[in-house]
Amino acid sequence: MKNNLIKFNVKAGLAIVMLTGLSACSTLGVEPWEKDQLARADMALDSEKLDMALDDHIYFSKEGTSGGRSLAGGGCGCN
């Protein structure tokens, strides 16, 4: 009897973990009413032009390259 009770508890615990895991996947994604917050100008990756210029300067100084934001290659000859 004790052995059956342990098996039941293990199965019940596993079922709870699986149901919790499956229910957590149902909340993925952005709802339509949340998209306006993500579309704001200050949420863009390049919203601050001065920060972008400073980041580029630091990156190019460390890497010894020029350009490379949208083009292949970086001064080493490999593409």
TrEMBL record:
DUF4266 domain location: 30-79
Name of this protein: DUF4266 domain-containing protein
Organism, as annotated: Shewanella aestuarii
Species classification: Bacteria, Pseudomonadati, Pseudomonadota, Gammaproteobacteria, Alteromonadales
